[in-house]
Design brief:
The complex is a heterodimer of chains A (380) and B (103). By secondary structure, chain A is of the alpha/beta class. Helix content of chain A is 39%, strand content 17%. Chain A has a domain at 74-176 and 260-304: Rossmann fold. Chain A has helices at 10-26, 40-48, 51-54, 74-85, 107-112, 123-132, 149-162, 176-185, 198-204, 210-214, 227-242, 262-271, 302-305, 321-325, 357-363, 367-379, and strands spanning 33-39, 59-66, 89-93, 117-119, 137-144, 167-173, 193-197, 220-223, 248-250, 272-274, 277-280, 284-287, 291-293. Chain B is elongated and about 65 Å long. Chain B has a single domain, classed as SH3 type barrels, CATH 2.30.30. The chains are: A alpha/beta (380), B alpha+beta (103). At the A-B interface, helix 1, helix 2, helix 6, helix 7 and helix 9 of A face strand 4, strand 5 and helix 2 of B. The structure holds iron/sulfur cluster. Iron/sulfur cluster (SF4) is lined by residues 319-321, 324, 331, 334, 336-337, 341, 347-348, 350-351, 358 of chain A. Chain B: This is Hydrogenase expression/formation protein HypC. Chain B: InterPro entries: Hydgase_assmbl_chp_CS (IPR019812), Hydrogenase_HupF/HypC (IPR001109).
């Protein structure tokens, strides 16, 4: 397919790997280089194409928190279930969020018990359901980083324009920059560089990342999602590191303009404002990391329209999602990985979405390979 | 959710609501193109453009020139690598330890 197949060419991948190998051989350091991919889309590609296995030993990928489904705290899932169980509500959601476990049940279980939960592909589909069902309250479960924020904003603007009265948004949108900052400030993480999230960047542009280089002295390369994109970005990061440079580079120029997307940012500005803080699963509360609807759009805000339990609920004790999210341990090192926690029976949310590190590792069966490599390293 | 799909705009359905028909892997569906129209590029001028689609919205224009440039860079890198490894072989040195690692 156009714009995809060209970026999967094995010959070019081999050449890139050779270049990466040469640069990696020049690295003189005691511990392996830790590169974090922030975005869940990258995590998925890295596992799908087995990129970790072909990288030189002294380069390790750390799978970051960039999967919006995976960082959703249990209390928010419970709020969703409470909304969905409201007798007059049609609760609309992206498919990814259906199986995230809440403290009592997931949305899928709520639907099995009779709640009207419908999967939608786009927030506009949810608005259409509201138009078609004037007697019912339609709630759209909005989640995602800056990539999916503009579609939600444009849909709210459309609803306001049309004067639709029975549509509201349960807003769980989160922002990438405060999250990266929280990771960099966390004492138990040592990172050497970042693969920047390609699709968040097409909205926000490349300038917001500058502080990572300036203040934290870490390089960041905005990367596409095909195997060649990821290898190319790893190569560019290594080149910066071996040359002692530290910059924001844009590998994904075919999609990401340096200035971002003005129309999208404008819609986001009009509809959303920053929350003082937002709770993340495994990472705790992060200042200014979420947005809510502005007061002018209060009538489309499900949090204002309905009363919600809004409880803070601790993750099950056996879950180590937080440590995996921060890269402190590998998914398979979690005590319940593959036993009590599998994609069919997820305990933690990293096992739910295919963009979660645990599910990706489980689905693509790379566990044995990685474990073997890890054992070998211990022996060496 | 964060992985977008490329598609080609084939027809504008309704400019007022920014609705267009986009062909994605041979399947046609309605997509909102509000984020890719601009003062410089109106609805009609978007027809034929490739865009990246997330949750039913075209979020960015795919730039064929930039795609070409990236591929060209990768090709040059490959050629350089080949040259380096022939030189290295000629001098009887190993050209990197990577080969043994790939499956
Ligand atoms: S295996 Fe399950 S519980 Fe453990 S970190 Fe992964 S998702 Fe969380």
């Amino acid at each position: 397919m156009k714009f995809i197949d060209e970026f999967r060419d094995p010959a070019k991948a081999r050449a890139l790997l050779a270049s990466i190998g040469n640069l990696a051989a020049q690295l003189q350091r005691e511990r392996p280089l830790h590169l974090m991919e922030v975005c869940g889309g990258h995590t998925h590609s890295i596992f799908r194409y087995g990129i970790e296995q072909v990288l030189p030993r002294n380069i390790e990928m750390v799978h970051g928190p960039g999967c919006p489904v995976c960082v959703l705290p249990m209390g928010r899932v419970d709020d969703c279930v409470a909304l969905a169980e409201h007798p007059n509500v049609i609760f609309t959601t992206f498919g990814d969020a259906m199986r995230v476990p809440g403290s009592r049940k997931s949305l899928l279980q709520a639907r099995a018990e009779g709640a009207d939960v419908r999967m939608v592909y786009s927030p506009e589909d949810a608005l259409k359901i509201a138009r078609d069902n004037p007697g019912r309250e339609v709630v759209f479960f909005a989640l995602g980083f800056e990539t999916t924020m503009p579609p939600t904003a444009l849909t709210v603007l459309r609803a306001a324009e049309e004067g639709i009265e029975n549509f509201s948004v349960f807003c769980n949108h989160i922002t990438i920059i405060p999250t990266i900052k929280a990771i960099l400030d966390s004492p138990d993480i040592r990172l050497d560089g970042f693969l920047g999230p390609g699709h968040v960047s097409m909205v926000i542009g490349s300038a917001p990342y500058e502080f990572i280089c300036r203040h934290y002295r870490k390089p960041l390369v905005i990367s596409g999602f095909e195997p060649l994109d990821i290898l190319h970005s790893v190569y560019l990061l290594l080149k910066q590191i071996t040359e002692g440079r530290c910059e924001v580079e844009n590998q994904y120029r075919r999609v990401v303009p340096d200035a971002g997307n003005t129309a999208a940012l404008e819609a986001v500005q009009r509809v959303f404002e920053l929350r003082e803080f937002f709770e993340w699963r495994g990472l705790g509360s992060i200042d200014h990391s979420g947005v809510r609807l502005r007061g002018a759009f209060a009538r489309f805000d499900a949090e204002k329209r309905f009363s919600l339990p809004n409880l803070k609920i601790a993750d099950p004790k056996s879950c180590q999602c937080g440590e995996v999210l921060k890269g402190a341990i590998k998914p398979w090192q979690c005590k319940v990985f593959g036993t009590a926690c599998t994609p069919k029976t997820p305990l933690g949310s990293l096992m739910v979405s295919s963009e979660g590190a645990c599910a990706a590792m489980h689905n693509y069966g790379r566990m044995d390979l990685i474990r073997a490599r890890e054992l070998q390293k211990e022996r060496e | 959710m964060c992985v977008g799909i490329p598609g080609q705009i084939v027809e504008i359905v309704d400019a007022a609501s920014d609705t267009a028909v986009v062909e994605i892997c041979g399947v046609r569906r309605a997509v909102n193109i509000a984020c890719v129209v601009s003062d410089e590029r109106n609805h009609a001028q978007c027809v034929g453009e490739w865009v990246l689609i997330h949750v039913g919205f075209a979020m960015s224009r795919l730039d064929p020139l930039e795609a070409q440039k990236t591929l060209e860079l990768l090709r040059e890198l490959g050629e350089m690598e080949e040259k380096l490894s022939t030189i290295a072989e000629r001098e009887g040195r190993a050209s990197g330890q990577l080969e043994e690692e790939s499956p």
